[in-house]
Each structure stands twice: as structure tokens, then as C-alpha cells.
Design goal:
Chain lengths: 153, 342
């Protein structure tokens, strides 16, 4: 069993949240009904665009909570004891981009907010593109058995 | 136009236009036919339209004008279409052989007229209702498009880009009135995975954006012989709608629907009666929108946006309260190069 520098529960919660975000994010594309996922018992909800949209918001809030919690701890204590690995740094930067573009996406959806079409396009594709990159990098890190974000100093 | 505009709230251009149009409105009773000579410019912010249904005679001039004005935007699909997979679930939608259909919304007919016969106050009324995109203030079709293909402009027009739309029809599903209509065999999806994802382009009223950009009136407004429609800054249109409804003992639709739209109907009969009448004559259904009350479908997302702002604050607070110590796992003997932070 791996030694873990931080609580395994934090890792599990992070992985679960990212998985849920990736799943509900992909469900924003109108494909679940087309590919019969809605026909799988218990999966009909995946065809409810509003529900998966709200779930995406909720999981995004969980991720933001975790990110803020980790950053606070990082600057208070952890930075003296642990440091980011190269794979960890890469993914942290990508994650920051995903979070920022996601927040802009939330802002865009507020009533009374009207952004330029080019800005909307940039936000949309940055968010989607970075998620794709994140998936590839995470997979590469896993395959190379260097999935840890941090190591001891 | 019957209300004088407040010069303090409009641009010079808008004010000069207002002098020409609304100034004359001072001389005639409100509700009387009054032609507009142009659309206020972008400086006037979000524009809305007012449809006085008591005036509409259902002549169809607006429908024809809409087709002519937007003919260059209509899809020209090449056949045969790619056969979408899985064929049992994904079907091509082809209106290119049915371009003349005028009794519903199609990719080639962005405006049509519904007719409802209702009894109100002991009188039989025949109400004609021009129907097209409502141009919502917070449009779910644009907000929920996963590709950024739909957006709302500063002037209140919601548009779908035929260059970016994949034709997944999500916009139609989330639109409370299911307005956008799909044409297969055109658009970006043909150049990606035509059989596996996407299925054409969605089309709907764009309020003749090219004309509005030049300060001209949308075709349906310009051509109307009865001056059913008025376009102007939203606040003024709302004021006019309320005044008209008060003067005629009429009813308003579009003001509160879906959190507010930029298409405001004023009718001499209640809209629930109109909606029921449409249902009886099968004038309601696919491509034929209803007139029911509509809640703000993006309201939950608006509330959840607050949660996304509060979440990091809560995270910082938790960190400051010492949750970090509990999350910092116990070290074990062995290699120290392993560990997961997040």
C-alpha cells in the first residue's frame, strides 16, 4: 500500500469530484439519449439537461471548496513540508485554467450578463479543451506510475 | 410608438429618432397605428418588441417578409445526408423539400401565425398570434449550448451561429417554447464525425440582425400593414405594454415568462384561454409553441452560482480553522517519494 503524505480521503474526494465533473461535463453534449445511456436502468436522469447542468454546478462548488482548502493549507503549513511534483505542477496549472474558465462560464450564465460572442467561444473551448488535456495528462501520469501530485521536501 | 422617449436615457441618435417617431405619437391616441422608421442603435441597450395582438389580422405579410429577408441564411443541404448512428435513435431532419410549410416553425420558416378563437367577456374573439423566438433575457438555448454556438447580443437578439452549430438540438430541448428547428446535412458536423455526433444546424429568428445593425427595422415589423409590432429599448417597450394593457383591459405575455423575454405580447383575451384554444385546434405541438406561463428555467443555476462563490470562502475558512492538520496524513516508514495531495 502506498504511503500517503496527505489524507487518503482528500485524494479520494478529489478524484471522485473530478470524475463527477468530467461525467456531468460530458453530459452537457446531447449524446446520452442518442447512445441509449438514458435507457440503462437508473440512468434516465442523464438525459435531463437541466439536472446534469445543476449537478455540474454542485460538483464545481465541491471542487472549489477543496481547492481553497488545499491552497489555504498549502500556504499555512504544507509548503514547508511538501512540494509539487512535475506531473503535479502540470496538472495544477491545467486545473487552475479549468476552474477559471468554469467560473467565467458560471458568470456568463447569470441574468444580465452579456459577453461578446468571441469571448463566449474562447471560454467554452478553453474549458472543454483543458478538460481534454487534463484527462490525457492524468492518464499519462497514471501510466508512468507518477500520479502523485506532491512529494516530501 | 405612442410614448415620448426620455432624452436622458437614450443616445443622441436614439433621441433624434424618438423625435421623429415618438414626437408624432404625442399627437395621436395611444394604440393607434403608428409606423416606426427604424430600430434604435446599440447605445440603447437591450431591445424588445411589443406585439399588439388586437391589431393582427393574420394576413401573413410578416411571414413572407421574414422568408425574403432571411432567404440567404436558409440551409442548402447536399444530399445524400450521412446516415447518423445509431439509426434507431438519431434521425435526419430534412425540411429542404418542404420549404413552403408556413403553419409551423421550420428551418425555412422562422415566423408563423397561430389563430385562436376564444370567448371572452361574452364576445367571440379571433386572435392572430405571430410566433417566433421570444429572445429571452437569459436564454437557456445560448447558456446551455456546449459549443458556444448560440449567444445573446447586447441588443437583446439571441443568435445561433450556423458555422459553429452541431445540430444536437439541445437548444430546442431546453427552450421553454422549443423554438429552434433542425436541418440535417449542413454545418460543421459534416467535417468532423458526421455519422457519430451532431446532425445539422439549428435555425430560428435572429430578429433580422443585419437590418437592426444598420438601424433598420426587422422585416416582419417593417412590412406589417397594421403596425402590430413595435421595437425599442426594453424599459420603454415594457412601459408601453403596460399602458396598452391598462387602456384596453388586456393581458401581457413575455414580461415574466422565463425570467423575462424581449418579446412582449398584449392580448385582449387571457393567454391561458388562447393556449387552450390552440390546443383544441391542434395548433400547438412540434414547431408550434404554447402560450403557457413559464418559470425562469435558469433560476436554479443563478442560485447555484452563489454556491460556487461561497464554496472557496468556506474552503479558506475550513483551512484556517485547522482542517488542514487533519488532512495531513500520518507518515509511514518506507519510500517518501509517493503521495497524493489532491
Amino acid at each position: 500500500m502506498k504511503d500517503r503524505i496527505v489524507s487518503p480521503w482528500l485524494s479520494r474526494l478529489f478524484v471522485a469530484t473530478m470524475t463527477a465533473l468530467a461525467a456531468t461535463g460530458m453530459m452537457q453534449m446531447p449524446l446520452t439519449r442518442r447512445y441509449f445511456i438514458t435507457d440503462i436502468p437508473g440512468m434516465a436522469w442523464t438525459g435531463d439537461f437541466f439536472l446534469v447542468h445543476k449537478l455540474h454546478y454542485i460538483f464545481a462548488a465541491v471542487l472549489l471548496f477543496l481547492a481553497a482548502l488545499i491552497l489555504t493549507n498549502w500556504f499555512r503549513q504544507w509548503k514547508d513540508r511538501i512540494r509539487l511534483t512535475a506531473w503535479g505542477t502540470t496538472r495544477a496549472i491545467i486545473l487552475a485554467g479549468i476552474i477559471l474558465s468554469g467560473l467565467l462560464r458560471v458568470y456568463r450564465n447569470l441574468p444580465g450578463v452579456t459577453l461578446h460572442p468571441d469571448a463566449i467561444l474562447a471560454i467554452e473551448w478553453t474549458h472543454f479543451g483543458l478538460v481534454m488535456v487534463m484527462g490525457c495528462v492524468a492518464l499519462a501520469a497514471l501510466i508512468s506510475r507518477q500520479s502523485a501530485y506532491v512529494q516530501k521536501r | 410608438m405612442s410614448e415620448p422617449k426620455n432624452p436622458s436615457t437614450v443616445s443622441r441618435r436614439g433621441f433624434l429618432k424618438a423625435l421623429g417617431v415618438s414626437g408624432a405619437g404625442l399627437l395621436v391616441p395611444s394604440g393607434a397605428a403608428m409606423a416606426q422608421d427604424g430600430t434604435p442603435g446599440p447605445d440603447d441597450g437591450e431591445l424588445a418588441t411589443l406585439l399588439d395582438l388586437s391589431k393582427c389580422i393574420g394576413c401573413g405579410e410578416c411571414v413572407n417578409a421574414c422568408r425574403e429577408s432571411n432567404a440567404a441564411k436558409f440551409p442548402e443541404p447536399k444530399k445524400p445526408f450521412p446516415d447518423p448512428i445509431p439509426s434507431r435513435r438519431a434521425k435526419n431532419e430534412d425540411w429542404s423539400e418542404k420549404r413552403d410549410v408556413e403553419d409551423r416553425l421550420t428551418p425555412y420558416n422562422w415566423l408563423f401565425i397561430q389563430t385562436a378563437e376564444v370567448e371572452h367577456k361574452g364576445e367571440m374573439l379571433e386572435i392572430n398570434i405571430p410566433r417566433r423566438c421570444m429572445h429571452c433575457r437569459n436564454p437557456p438555448c445560448a447558456n446551455m449550448c456546449p459549443f458556444g454556438a448560440a449567444n445573446k447580443q447586447q441588443n437583446g437578439i439571441t443568435r445561433i451561429s450556423d458555422k459553429l452549430c452541431m445540430g444536437g438540438a439541445k437548444c430546442r430541448a431546453v427552450c421553454p417554447w422549443h423554438i429552434p428547428q433542425r436541418q440535417s446535412g449542413v454545418g460543421l458536423y459534416l467535417h468532423l464525425l458526421p455519422r457519430l455526433a451532431g446532425n445539422g444546424v439549428m435555425y430560428k429568428c435572429d430578429r433580422c440582425h443585419q437590418l437592426v445593425a444598420r438601424g433598420e427595422l426587422p422585416a416582419c415589423i417593417d412590412v406589417c400593414p397594421e403596425n402590430v409590432q413595435t421595437i425599442g429599448p426594453r424599459a420603454e417597450i415594457i412601459e408601453q405594454a403596460r399602458k396598452l394593457a391598462a387602456e384596453t383591459d388586456g393581458y401581457i405575455y413575455g414580461l415574466e415568462e422565463n425570467g423575462g423575454t424581449n418579446t412582449i405580447y398584449v392580448s385582449p383575451a387571457p393567454f391561458d384561454k388562447l393556449d387552450k384554444a390552440l390546443g383544441k385546434t391542434k395548433s400547438k405541438g412540434k414547431g408550434r409553441p404554447h402560450l403557457q406561463p413559464v418559470k425562469d428555467v435558469m433560476a436554479d443555476e443563478t442560485n447555484l452560482a452563489t454556491a460556487t462563490l461561497l464554496a472557496p470562502v468556506a474552503g479558506i475558512a475550513a483551512g484556517m480553522l485547522g482542517v488542514g492538520a487533519a488532512l495531513f496524513g500520518e507518515e509511514k516508514n518506507g519510500p517518501k517519494e509517493d503521495g497524493n495531495e489532491r
